[in-house]
Structures are given as C-alpha cells and as structure tokens.
Amino acid sequence: MKTGWIIEDQGNRKGLWVNESIFNVANGYLGVRGNYEEGYDGKEPTIRGTYINAFYDITPIQYGESAYAFPDTQQKLVNVIDVQDLHIRIGEESFSLFAGQVVSYRRWLNMKEGKYVRLVHWISPQGKELEIEFTRMASFTTLELFVMDVKITRINCDDEVTITSGMNGDISNYTNSNDPRVASDHAKLLHVVHTGVQDTCLQIVAETSRSRLRVAATTFHELTPCIEGRLIQTDTNLTKEYVFPKGKEVLRLTKYNVFTDTRRHEQPELCGLEIVKSVVSKGIKQIWKEQELYLEAFWAMANIEIQGDAPLQEGLRYNVYQLLQSVGKDKYSNIAAKGLSGEGYEGHYFWDTEIYILPFFILCQPELAKQLLRYRYTILGEAKIRAKELGHRKGAAYAWRTITGQECSAYFPAGTAQFHINGDIAYTYIQYYLATGDEAFIAEFGAEVVFETARTWIELGHFDDGVFKIDAVTGPDEYTAIVNNNYYTNVLAKYNMEWAVKWYRQLKSTHPEAWASLCNRIELTDEEIIIFEQAAAQMYLPFNDKLGIHEQDDSFLSKKVWDFENTPRANYPLLLNYHPLFIYRHQVLKQADTVLAHFLIEDGVSSDVLKSSYDYYEKITTHDSSLSSAIYSIMASKIGYADKAYSYFIETARMDLDNTHGNTKDGLHMANMGGTWMAVVYGFTGVRIKEDQLVLNPVLPKAWEGYKFSMQYRQAQITVEVNTNETVLMVDAVKPIVLEVKGKRFKIQTGKIRIAI
Amino acid sequence: MKTGWIIEDQGNRKGLWVNESIFNVANGYLGVRGNYEEGYDGKEPTIRGTYINAFYDITPIQYGESAYAFPDTQQKLVNVIDVQDLHIRIGEESFSLFAGQVVSYRRWLNMKEGKYVRLVHWISPQGKELEIEFTRMASFTTLELFVMDVKITRINCDDEVTITSGMNGDISNYTNSNDPRVASDHAKLLHVVHTGVQDTCLQIVAETSRSRLRVAATTFHELTPCIEGRLIQTDTNLTKEYVFPKGKEVLRLTKYNVFTDTRRHEQPELCGLEIVKSVVSKGIKQIWKEQELYLEAFWAMANIEIQGDAPLQEGLRYNVYQLLQSVGKDKYSNIAAKGLSGEGYEGHYFWDTEIYILPFFILCQPELAKQLLRYRYTILGEAKIRAKELGHRKGAAYAWRTITGQECSAYFPAGTAQFHINGDIAYTYIQYYLATGDEAFIAEFGAEVVFETARTWIELGHFDDGVFKIDAVTGPDEYTAIVNNNYYTNVLAKYNMEWAVKWYRQLKSTHPEAWASLCNRIELTDEEIIIFEQAAAQMYLPFNDKLGIHEQDDSFLSKKVWDFENTPRANYPLLLNYHPLFIYRHQVLKQADTVLAHFLIEDGVSSDVLKSSYDYYEKITTHDSSLSSAIYSIMASKIGYADKAYSYFIETARMDLDNTHGNTKDGLHMANMGGTWMAVVYGFTGVRIKEDQLVLNPVLPKAWEGYKFSMQYRQAQITVEVNTNETVLMVDAVKPIVLEVKGKRFKIQTGKIRIAI
Predict the structure, then answer these.
(1) What range(s) does the Glycoside hydrolase family 65 N-terminal domain occupy (chains A, B) (predicted)?
(2) A554 touches chain B (CB under 8 A)
(3) Fewer Cβ atoms within 10 Å of its own Cβ: the N or the C terminal residue of chain A?
(4) Annotated binding site for substrate: which residue ranges of B?
(5) Which residues contact A485 (CB under 8 A, 6 or more apart)?
C-alpha cells in the first residue's frame, strides 16, 4: 500500500452509515454511497444511495403561514436506481458479515488509483471459507460509468457458489423530520417506467414525479468462468442469478453500470446501451488504467505533501480527492453541499462553492473552476427573475440554495436574506480573473454577472446622510438574522460595485464590441456606473471605536453575550437546542462572519483591527457550522497565532473521517474540505491573489518537517516547498509573473526562489 | 322599525358570503353565519358555518424548514354540525331566490330584540306566490340555543307545501392556500359518531379528529298546524320532511337547536336533550322576550347615541353588538379575532382582546371583562411552559395566537417574536384594576400574571452600559420584524415591571396572606423585585433628537422610507404583494406602533413629542391592519386633529358593513369593532383611566349635534352627554370618585357636572 494514499475503514465510527458517506465513490456526475453490496442485518441504519449531480425532482414546500414570494416548490436530489446489489451464496448459506466468522476484513479507498476495495476473509456458520474482494470505481474518464468487480476464492471447500446481481428501481429518498439539515418529507420521487433486457444488457428506466426527468441504468455482467445466468424480472427490479458449479477456481463477476439521464443525454436508453458496449469492449483493466492516468495528472497539480504528520496528510488528501469526486463537470451541475456522498441539504448548491471550494479549483484546476463559474452564468436568468419577485427593479438575486437556479430555501431569515451570496459569486469571478488573467471569460460571462449583482446592492441599499446602507439582510453567521449593515455583506457589496465600475471601463477599451453589446442588452448606462461608484465609496462599514473592531452589524455589539459557561456540551449545535429568537438575541456566532470578511478582503484593514477582531469574535463563535474552522485557521496564520492555526486546521482536516460534527452519515462537508486545502495554501503559506501579484507568506507548522504543493497562477506553474530552513518556489511560466514572498517582490518567468523561513 | 337599531341587507356588498359574516347570529358560545336556509344556486361562493367558541381540533403544522421550539401543531376552530337547512317546496317547485320572481326581499338584524329576520315575497316559475319569513336567534340567556322560525303564507294559491328540515354532520372547514390570514389546509376535522332520534328530538353527535372533543346538536321541530313528519336518516345526516296539505292557513315551523360540547358539558348528549326540553316548554315567545330583556340591560350600559349621523350611529351600534355576540362567557373562551362570525385566523385569541376589546368591557361590562382576564389566568401554566421552551429560566411567555394557551403561530417573526403580548396582558389587568378598584381580583389572579410577565422581560432583556435593552422582538407593526428595543415593547415592559413592584409592596400590606402564599408558590423574592425596579428605571426608550420623536426601534429611522408615490393602490395590503424582506427593509407601518404606545402610556411624554410622533408615523402607515385606524383616530383627538379623528373613526365604524378591507367574508374584524367604541370614548371624549382619577376631555365632532354614552368607574355609573354647548356628566356612585374634566378636578358621588364645550 502506498502511504498516505489509502483511506482505510476504521470500524470505530458511529454506525455503518457514516462509512457509507466516507467510502462514497463518485466522479462529479455520478455518486454511489459505500453501502455493502449484500446489505446489513436489517437492524443497522443505512442510507442506500446513488445520485446523479443535478438530477432532481420537485416537491411542494408547506408553510404553516406563507407569505408573498416564498418559494412554493423545492428541488431535491433524487436517489436513483440502485445497482449495488450482489448477493453471494455458498451451498445454502448466504454471505453476510453479520453471520459466521469474519477472519479478516479490510476496506479502503485508493486515491491514486481511484478505486474502492473491500476484502473479506469469511467462514460461514457451517464452516465454508471464502475470500471475497469487492472493487468499485466511478470513472473520471467515462462519467456515466460505475463499475463493480467481485472476486471469490474458495478456501478449503469447492461448493457451488451463487451470485445474485440486482438492479432495483423501487427507490425512496431518506427523510428525517427532526433535523432541519435533511429533508423532512417526500421520500418517493422516482417511478420505474420500464425494465427489460436488450443486447444482453439489463436496463431500468425510471422517471421523477414532477420534474419529469428520466434516468436509465444499463448493466452488463462479465463472468469468469463464463456462465449463463437466470433473469428474474419484476415491474421495478431486474436480477440475474449466476450459479457457479463446484470447483476450486477463482470466480469473478464484473458489473458495468452506466447511468444516463435526460438532463445530459437526449436518448438515455439508447445512449446507455452504447456507452456500456464501448466500456465493455475496452475492458476493466483498461478502465482502471485510464483512471490511474487521470488521477496522475490531477495529483500532479492538486497534491499537498506533508512531512511529519501521517493522519493529517491522509485527511488533507482525502478532502482534496472528495472535491474532485464532487465537482460537476458540465454546465448543469456544480458542487452540492454534500457532494454526491449523501442527501443532506438535498443536493443543493450554496455559496460554499464560491467561498470555500473554488479557491482550490481556481489555483489547481482552473478549467474546472471556469466550469463552476459558468454554471452561475447559466442560472443568471433565474436570478434576475428572482430579483423581480423580491421587489427589485433590476439586478440579479441568486438563490440561496438551488439546483437549477430557483430559490429552494424555505426559511428566508437564513436563506433569501443572505443576499451576500451575490457578493460571493461576484468576488469569485474577480478572484478567477486575478488568478488567471482570463479577460475573455470576463468579457463573455463574468462582467454580466458582476454588473447584475452590483445592481442588486443599489436595489437593496440606500443613501442615508452621506453613507450607503444595506438593511434587513443576514450575513454568513446564521445565529444572527435580518440585521442592518452586516459588515461582511457591505464589504463584499462595495467590492462587487468597485469591480463593476472597473470592468465597465476596462472592457470598454479592451473588448469594445462585447462591451457595447452587453451594455445594450442589459441596458447598462454610465449613470448607473456612477451610482455604483458612489455607493461603493460611501459604503457604511460599522466600526466600534471602543473595541477597535468592525462590528458584525449595526446592533451586534450591544446584544447580550451568550452564556457559554452555563451551556452544556450537549446543547451544541445551538440551532438544535434553542429557538431562533433566543439565539438571535445574543452575541453568539455559528461561524466566521466579520473574520471571514477580513480574510476575503484584507486591504484597508489594519493588522491591529484584524487581530482585535479575531480575538473578539473567536470567543463567541461556536463553530456549529462546518464552514468556520478553516477560516479561523487561515486568519490565525495571518495574525501569527500558530497554535490556533494548527488546531483549527486539524479540526477541518479530519472532520468527516472522524465524524466530529456527528452528521457525516448525511454526507461529507464539502465546503470544509475545500477549507482544509485553503488552510494550508491561504493559511500556512499565506497566499493572496492581488490585483497585480501573488502574495505568499509561508510558515511551517511546528509539528511538521515540511510541506509542498503546486498551483497555477496566470498560466505559470508554481511549486511551493516549505521546510524547516527555507521556502523554495519553483516557477515555470509563459511570461513573467510577480510574486511577493514575505514582503519581497520578485518578477520571474522560470526558475527558483529561495527565502529563509 | 326602530331607527338605528336595525342593520339591513344592502345587497350591494361583494358576494353573499360577505353578508354571511355580517348577519352572523351569535352569543359568545355559539355562532351561526348568515347563510340562506335553502342555499344558493351552487355558483355563489359560500362559507356555511356554525362555530362553538373554543371548540377546536388540532392540526399538524408543516414547515419547509423547521427549527427548535417551533410549534408542531395548531389549534383550529371547528365548523360544527349544520342545522340551518330548511327547504321549502310548493307543489313540485322548490323555493330559491335564484329562480322565479323575487317581488320583495328584506333581511335585517334587530339589535334591540337580538333577532335576525329574512322576509321574502316570491313567485315561483309556475306562478305560485309565497311570503316567507325566516327568523333566527342565538339566545343570550340559554347560550346553547340557536332557534329558527319560518312562517309561510300562501298568496293566491293553496297548494301543498313541503318543508324539509335538515341537520348535517358531514362538515368541513374552509381553506384557501393563497391567503395567510385563513387556513391553508386540513378542512375535514369533524366526524359523526352518531345520528338518531330520542324523545322526539333529532340528535347528531360528532367528534374532532385529534383533540377528541365531542359536540352534540339536538333539534326539536314545532309545527303549526301540527303535523307528523317523515324521518330520513343517514350516517351523517338527519332530515325531517313535513308535508302541509292544501289550504290557505299560515304555516309555521319552529326549529329549536341546542349545541352542547364536552368542553362545557360532561354528557353533551343528555344535556342537549334536557336543554331542548326546557326551551321548548318555555316556548318561542318567552325566549324572544328574555332576549329583549337581556339586551335592554346591555344597551342601558353599552349604547352610544349619536345625534346627526345615522350611518355612523348604525355602524357604532353594530360594532358594539358584535362585541357582545363574540365574547366568551366562560373560563374556556375569549374573543376570537373574528368572533364567531367566520374562520379567519382560525378562531384564535390574540392581543386584540386586551388592547382593543377589553377597554369596552372594562368600562361597560366589568363582569365580562373579569371573565376575559380570568381566561388569561387559566392559560398562565401554558405560558410558563412556553417560556421554558423559549429558553427562559422563569416567567410566562403568552402565545401570540391560541385557543387553550399553546402557541399556534407558525411564523415566529410576526408571532412568537411579538413578546409585547405579555405587556399587553399585564397592562390590561392594571387597567381593570384602575377602573374597578377590584384589589381582591388582583390578589387572586392579576398579581401572579403581572409578576410572571415581569420576569419575562428580565429573561428577554439585559443591562448594557447602564440601560436595560430588549433585543430581537417584533412590535405591533408587523411590517418591521425582529428588531432591538422596539419602543412600544420597552415602554410596556417598563410599565409591567413598575406595577409588579407596586403590587408586590401593596399586597404585602393589604393582602399579606395571599401575598405570602403567592410569593412562596412562584418563588418570588425581594431580590427579584429590586431587579424589576432597576430594569424599569433604566429601560431604554429610543429617542431621535433631530425629529423629536421616539424611534419605533433602534434602527427604524435609518431605513429607507417606502416609496408610496410609486406604489399602486392594487399593491395594498403590502403583505400580499411584497416579500417580507422587502417590507422589513423600509420605513413603512402596517399599523400604529409608537403611536399606540403613546395612547396606552402617555404620562411622561410631552405633547410636542406626541404630535411630532403622530405626524411622522402617520405619513408612513398603510393601515393594512384593521387595528390601526381606531388608534390614529384616538390620537388625532388627543392632539386636536379633529378632521383626522373623525375620518379615521368613519373608517372603523363601517369597516365590515362596507367591507372596506375586502375580507369580511372570513369574519368580522372584532378588534376594530372595539376600536370604534374606543374612538368615541377614548378619542372624542378623551377618557383616560389614571391611578387615582378618571380623566375626560370631551369634544364634539363637527358633523354631530351631540352624543351620549354611559360607563362604570369604581362602581359609579357615569353618563356622559356632549352637545354643541356643553358636556353633562351624570354620576351615581356608592362612594365619591374623582373626575378630571377638561383639566378641572371634581370629587363627586351623585349628581351632575356641566362643563362648557
């Protein structure tokens, strides 16, 4: 085994369903949870799930009391056809880890090969001994493909072995009415329209209830030795039973499963058959090889090597790998809050993508970053419609949570009120531009998004006595809602409008035709730009002189501080134990808010303020949101709190592997996973993408001997190596770039920079 | 007909269902909407309803996203068994106002007799001529009784006449998912458990689905001439068919309907039979007589006579009459937002009772006022449980809307967040005490409520830099939500705590035993009282120096003023046309808030501030709530804006009769009806109940020649007569009282006071 590239089943997590999330196998299009092929004992809770990114149904939202422009339906990621079933019988006995004797059991994810393996040495109650090896893979090169492979070795016995391989279309989603973070209702979304056999392939076609999307699962079985199977067909299921005669040879079944859907494939049934044929003719070995090659290229850019801390190395790499597994690779999809690993947050896309996940893609996989940003452009039309519904005359109001752009949040104080998502999206377009210099993309997509979101601030805010104010919004911290002049929101709004002005003037000269066409299309005028400029310049940024910090919002610091001393550990997360009003009444944060603003936009904020702000807000932050620790780690690095930086980093790095938030069963915390990478690159290494240079301020955590990673900046490949003595930067660019390392500026095209630590 | 005592069917309202509300017949226990006995044409919309005050079922509340301590069920007033059906046939033709020729039609409510009459002269399509007179009454002396009477006169014909009289147990509630002010779901609440005949009475017994309350309707038919009928019985219905032979005599059917329920009657079936027997033996004439005597006594106290404005006289009297029809007369019930006239707001009790309705009862029917206040005492236990759910260590948090005390609000920003309801209840106990001097009631009930609500402010608020602040609440104005230091809330909290301190000290000496027992029971200590005193003394009351007004809340005046100029008339009420966030972002009021606070607690506020406040807030108030105009009328009187006082008064006086809010079909606006009375007594007459005197500042509206009304103050009967020259007060007391009239103080026991106008 290659050290640090393997995630092993630790068996010590709470419940098998936690491991189902951790051992999910996905490729951004398709995701399958790490369920046992043969199932459990009927007592262990499970969420048996297969998901296709952005494949959704529509469910009604019920309100006790509704109000104008509350969304009346919601989109929901659908648990699709289950092809995982593989049941093994030896003689009359069924293989189960809950019967007989488990001599040895190992399960692991190999992140270099992109494969999941479960290896069991088992003795049946009647003493028959088997070694069984299950392998699974969701292909990164053929996104529709989920391939399974099982090898069975008979030890000290030669009995007949039966493998029953199933496809099940009678699937429901998971619900829990007591947890606001998962769906409470509407489990049955998918209905089978067809089961059948064509060209030796099994195929189930199913349709969603309201969105009327169709999915086809097409499966081909390859057997060694080659035998014929018996088909069992029902209205919703297809099963093949293969009976291997007595003997000693190794038995093997390879199950090629292809998922196609009407969002991407015009004729999913036909297309499914074609893809199956092509992958079968390629063969399993070749498929595995392609996967390895894909990952080799990926890791060449994305790998962070740490010397001196194996568990963290493992966590960090796992988190980055999950980002790759989750990222949508077409214009229909993005990264859901739980990736494709579970149903938590119903497969919706949030600001998490922009603020926590895109930084990795921008610096390591800019082509995928571009794809993610294009997704926001494709839903701009929906955001403009939503703005109108919300009473705005112009602009775009992006949905707080959505799949195809419509608002799916059923609780506006911590949903629609989080208008900052518009600033987050604009900010990230700008970051992408600063990192890549890709002005063509801005002219084509980015400027329009930034102009429309800038308009939203003008609609939301107003000039009052020489300052521009934005009332009745909720910032990132959901433990305070519907406030005036949230610092985070205002500072992002200011940035958003400043760049709208900048790009308006810049594109006018660099891309005059695109500029003119855009301005004409969205009726953008010089007058509006002047208003953006004024609003940005006069933006109100609440500041408390006594504490020397920016106030989270107008009234935050005058509230009562939460009584942490008398809050038992069991009462966290607070949202599950206190009424929102009780929480809103106090100075208490679910997650970084002003501190996050200081990370995103540091220019113009003195280091004293950064530090005071950190000190103040940290004391009252619960980190009940998984979006918090990474930011506190980064800002601790910035301020020089090395110990805090490291301990927050640890929290992020193994949050899901160690199920520290207790809800990993519902899926992995994708934003936090992006945050782990950020904590190294933006935190320990102090990377900041500025308007005309890349800034680095590397430090080495005490516990480490060194670390190394790569990134791409303005088409330059930069490798950063930090060890106990020095930082070494290797640059390979097509034209000179400017780096500022520990305060020193370098203009460099190719070569090394060495700076003492 | 007696002028001013009759409300006639004007036929010009939008739809018959508006008249169903207006012509409801109720007595505080039982209410029947003014449906036609024979029904409509199947096309006219209708809400056919019969309600028993506080007779409810429980329905689940669905949330798109729920949170901790959101109520998961709601109570809902149940539409009970319908006994209204009377179908008349002459020959083969059925009487219907939608067929044949209506020669004349009149319908009226006689408020002196407490009777509703519908008189129709009708010619059938085949030319048969009938005069039909329907009479209805809900008895004020036998609350269970709803009696109907029909007289049929054959004109120019002698054909056989059939009357079919029905009782229907297959009843559903009205729902409309598009209007937050009525129920959106769960129509079928009632299920028949028995239909049958006993002792010549028909009886249907039905049960609610979840609350498992039972209601029995017991009916007896009295016929002239006496004939036998034919019974038609189904699982849910009982019908009697009476065939009157050919002839010329006047035909008459009297239908005695008695409703009994398990909330008030141990054996409703038995009890229903007994009551029916007793009322039948009494006979219809005697029942009508008793009703008249009851109303004679009522009007002796409650009548306001206006000289010179017949439509307003009618409206004013109608509104007062409806208060009597709606008021619960036992400890289980209160006054629902729509009384017993419709299903709007689901039969819930709100702060409306205390702030808008109790003033009338306190000064005109103190025994009923006491009953209403006792209701709050009976649900104090529920309020204490709710306080705990909301995270408070002690105190009582009254439900924003409820029947038996549990919170039924499914939208906390304009529900649970309106903590001011605790102050409103405390305030009204204090008002009752000041008006009646009934210290025994305070010792027994009032003090406990006031102490427990005082505790709630300590839980909600906190000391900050020498002032006491209350964060994250919503004031009366629902167009601004979850704010800090709402002036209205804070000023009532201050008052609440001041009186808690006062009564604590007062009862200690006047009722030492009751005091000691209470303090012991609720563990109230001197230390707590000192904290109440400090919090009251240091209460933060936001004030804006520039405008010279109290600010509605901390941040209200810094918001953008609503763009009234560009808001089309069709966009009101705003809540049906704008997202809450859009509304919350603006300076715009649904209803009086600070202005209401100034009415309730005027001491310590200068007349300049009162005036500036009125001027400022009036401009930005939409009066989208029916609770607004009355208060603006009263405060206009206070300030001396005679024209405004009068025009707001007109709006309240005929709000339902003229359906000015467009939703009278869902029931009458009870709070507004109380407000009309207040606009005369507190407004034009300037009545204020002070700690040691009653203050009056009468004026005569220009349009009137005079007005006259009575009230009771500290067991004194006071009649106030205002005419163009003078005000005459007639006092008849058991001991001297102090009156301050136009700034002059009088100590008087019996006699007249004359003051020039």
Answers:
(1) 16-225
(2) yes
(3) N
(4) 351-352, 590-591
(5) A469, A470, A471, A540, A541, A542, A553, A554
